[in-house]
Specification:
Elements: H1 5-13, H2 27-30, H3 41-56, H4 61-68, E1 82-85, E2 95-98
Antiparallel strand pairs: 1-2
Amino acid sequence: MSATWADFAAALAEAPSLPGALCRGQHHLFDGCDFEAGETRTEAAERHAVAARICSVCPELAPCRAWSGQFSYPLAHVIGGRVPAARRRTTDTPTLEES
């Protein structure tokens, strides 16, 4: 069973503070592809690669990944070092792979 947006919002409300998280103030790198603004999948993938590199050296990666494990995937954004992967088919919905 996949999570709903309400489930996701509730989980976000219960997110740990992660005071040393390197993503703080850089949400634009971690957000999903902004198709409405004309962003391409390639541009989003490049942005997500930067986000994944930030996650890889983040002192809060372990607790972030533990917390984010409650989400049903696929998600369209980077969280806990997990990045969306381009689908083989032509679609606007990415899948996830571990970074």
